[in-house]
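Structure tokens please, single chain.
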Amino acid sequence: MHHARFSVCRTMFPARLLNQRKAMMYSFFVLIVCIIFYFVICLGAYFVDSEKLLPGGPIKKELRTILNKTESSKENERPQNIPRTMVDNQHQVKKHQGRVNMHIFEDCCGGSLHKLRSNMLYPLFPNVRTTVSRLSISPQWTNYGLRTFGYIHPSVTGEYIFAVGSDDNSEFWLSLNESPQNLERLAYVGEVGDEWSAPGEYWKFASQISKPVLLVKDMKYFFEALLKQSEGMDHLQIAWRLNQDSSSFEVITSEFLSLYEDESSLLMGDIDHIPQTEASYDRFLESIPTSPNPVGDMIREDVRDQIFKIPLIDKSFTKDLFPECDYNPSYIIGTRIGRYQGVNLIHFSSVYPNDYTRQTYAHDEHLCFYKQDTSFEESKGFAGFLKEVVDPDVQRNNKEGPNWQRVYDVNPFDAGSKQTSFAVNSCKRAGNIVMSQNQAMPIVKAFMTALLSKDTTRGYSLLRVLNVVRRQDNGKGSRYLVELELVGSQGQKVLVSRYVYAKQTETPQQLPTLCSPKQFNWNPSATVHVVVAVKDQARWVVQFIREMEKIYRVTGDKNFNVIIIDYNSSDMDIEKRLKNGKLPSYTFKKMQGNFQRSGGLQAGINLVEDAHSILFLTDLHLYHPLNLLNSIRKHCVEGKMVYAPVVMRLDCGASPRAPSGFWETAGYGLMAIYKSDMDRIGGMNTAEYKDKWGGEDWELLDRVLEHGLEVERLHVRNFLHHFHSKRGMWGNSA
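Here you go.
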């Protein structure tokens, strides 16, 4: 009996063991399925939460039913159809401040928002920072741009449709939450500047009305509205309505709005709080990228713009390359001249190759450029350049109307090389005088012949001609700055940059004989002190510092120092901004009393101890080329020459990305001069220009010439003066 029971147990034990194993396998399988299902749910929640906008379009019946229930429930009840993560990430707002931020950018011509975005000060440096209580405005002003931003607070959960109306162009952007980084453009009026709508006219363009967007009660949504106004009627409205047949558009009013930032206690120099978004961001923090289809030739890529990147050849390699010669040009003054007569005695140098500083896209003053040529007859215009050729196979038709078979001969006409060198007579859109290839290449060939005859440079060959600058002395000869890119036997690229002199010869077929003008060399390591005096110009001061930081960031040039003399500005802490900046060196001094440009510049000059460093007396409102420091050094020679670069004054609405304007040939407010030379001529005239400015640059130029210094005068590519009116400048409200 016991034996039989034992046999049964032995038989049942393997069966139970097998069943337990199956159960464990089934349990393990169920566990794996649950884990996979859990991950699927989590991933789905993640992707729902990361959507930029909840789906537009008609709401399904089930969703509409849920929304209706939600609206009738208590205020603290969570909407059932909204993912929990999205609601948890929002800050519920019970108190609406009833206003939104508005930034105004004046002196900005044109009707398109592209003009506003191309403004050098946009979006960080507005003229005015204020607030408005509803999204419907009409300032009744001209040539400005507006940026309005803040939060919208829907009072009910539902789908909303937005509309925009404006004169001229406008855009409305909305985020899916309170973050400025999630913006999407929902509606707009025009893109080229000619489009507009009447107030409240939301149906003129298809782009004016948005698709439905789901918004949730007690959440806030960042928005941005932009307006660009040229002239005439100006207005902007942002309206909304629920996606229901019975609803109509209404302007968004104060009960649905709140500020992005309370700016009432902030200084104009405080800019870190200003949101940068896809709609509005700083396009000038970095240097302008080269465009394959630039608006103007001046912003095309040019090797001179990046010449500082090429290492200079070892100075010892070119020592004694040319014999030394006396350099006493006939145009050096060195004697007393009449007051403000210096501007009439300045000559321009010429350049090779063409640097395209001529404003070829300008529509006015174009004949001034051609009148410089003696063959141009104004009565005939350009018809005088055409010489008809008689075609024996064509019968001459003297009847009125076109004669399609008339043919002509035309001689080459290089107007750029025919410009007068007298600065006072120059066309203000003409740009630099351009040397012809026949004038420049003999100098280059003579230079290379000397290089190849020297043991230390015989292994180099010419890669390309970067820059040749000529200052002509009629009847005697010419001084040249020759800059060539060479390549060595090992493939190394170097820059040779030095001054030479060539006497005028009567046998142009022969290569000119070059010599090295005595004591006329530029110092590539000279420290440049950039000096500016300011008062209550916070947005321009910050922009100026950023420009200097840009040059340092790109070039890595540590041999320069920024000097700011501040007449007790109340709109920003300049010293704090300098301390937090990224400059190799700076000097700051606070002055009391009324603003004095001459006195401020002289105060900055007095801070410089090294007599063998260069002072660059400058101004605000400028866009600086990256090669500025390199250009200053090579055109300043201690005891011999100062540098007065010509800056382009931009037209209203023009920008560094699409520059148009005129060259300020009569202005000498920008000047680079060695400290030793500045001390020798007596510094700034602080006695006469104590309570005024304007004319101090001409007076300084007079003394520069009277002390026997030469003035190098060149138009500088991409050196631009931003357009601005005098309203609000130095306390001027006119």
